[in-house]
Amino acid sequence: MNIVLPFVTATILTCCVTPLVIRIAYKFGFVDDPKKRFHPAHTHKGIIPRAGGLALSVGIVGGILLFLPVTKLILGIILGSLLLTAVGLADDRKDINPYVRFFSNALAAAIVVGLGAGIPYVTNPLTGGIVHLDTWRISFELFGSHSILVWADLLAFLWILWTMNIVGWSAGVDGQMPGFVTISAIVLGILSLRFSLADPSQITVTILALVVAGAFLGFLPWNMYPQKIMPGYGGKTLAGFLLALLGILSYGKLGTALLVLGVPMIDAGYTLIRRIGRRKSPVLADRGHLHHRLLDLGWGKRRVALFYWTVSAILGAIALTVRSQGKLFVLLLAVVGIGGFLLWVNYFSQLSKPQGPDSG
Questions:
Q1: Is there a domain that residue 146 lies in?
Q2: What is the rounded CA–CA span in Å between residue 342 and residue 297?
Q3: Number of structural domains, the chain?
Q4: In this predicted model, what pLDDT tens digit does every residue of 237-268 receive, in sequence order?
Q5: CA–CA distance, 63 with 354 (Å, rounded to integer)
């Protein structure tokens, strides 16, 4: 199969269906009006449709059904994606409790883990050796024989849940999230393509990665500044859900996923520390993310989005050229560099008078 075809198909499908979704969102009230619906993390003005997750779901699920065999795991990915889309639309219509959203995320993660998305081993970045996580197995009978790989499944569950949330936290500026998600999916697709030479089954992962990349690329023109539609909660959780799965399925190369998502990961870590340090719930939104601070410094939305894309592309390119030990070193440098930049931005944004976030 021509692996470019799934990418192009998902791009065209999402790009073409998004205008229809915009009309549906206006008609049925899947919109965001800051005057009626206050949210501390919002950076936009005016009434903007929120139902971007529906458009992305059409491109992703459509691409999967067209180009991939419906195996047990693929079925789990489809079911998890549809669940997240449905919950996202409910949230787009009327904000639902953040703990309900968290439970839906956990359920989607449990579905794919239960249908085979475990992490049987990881590479020790210090020695280059393999750490096996599939040694503790619990077997049981329930309409047939089943088994749970305790450590493998638990790590996969936590990884998916974590990635869904941190990617969603970096979706506050026009074009920001679709751009870095496209880059991240392409990097993970290239990684799986490399392994397909030794393991032909990896071509399935490559196609899945290109479908994800294409869908988000097709959504990008409608989400670029000034955005015509927002990803919504469904779009954000879909992004994290699928990138987490690609990191697992690409031979469990979580180090590559950690690097290419370096900015959202470090921003999320800082956010958790900040919220818990202030004795606030870690799942309640605020206006303290990196993109908010950059806007407070006077950066335009295009500039913020370009910053996220550029750093993701650089870290992704590095991740494809170094081994596990090198990834650890680069990741530590990224933590120090991006973390220091975040602290610097936070300090100076507190000193600066907030400026209009809608400047281009």
A1: yes
A2: 12
A3: 1
A4: 999 999 999 999 986 578 888 889 988 988 88
A5: 42
Helix (H) or strand (E) holding 155: helix 150-169
Range(s) of the domain holding residue 237 = 4-253+280-286
**Contact call for residues 74 and 68 (beta carbons, < 8 A):** yes
User: Is 272 inside any structural domain?
Assistant: no
Determine the distance from the C-alpha atom of residue 203 to the mean position of all C-alpha atoms in its chain, rounded to a whole number: 21
- Measured CA to CA, the distance from residue 70 to residue 228 in angstroms comes to 34
The reply to whether 192 falls in a domain is: yes
Q: Is residue 328 part of a domain?
A: no
Q: Pull the structure tokens for residue 2.
A: 């021509």
* One-letter-per-residue 3-state SS of 47-101: CEECCHHHHHHHHHHHHHHHHCCCCHHHHHHHHHHHHHHHHHHHHHHCCCCHHHH
* Cβ partners under 8 Å of residue 96, min gap 6: 87, 90
Cα–chain-centroid distance for residue 90?
19
330-347: pLDDT as tens digits: 888 888 888 888 788 777
Two structure tokens written together for 230: 């927002």
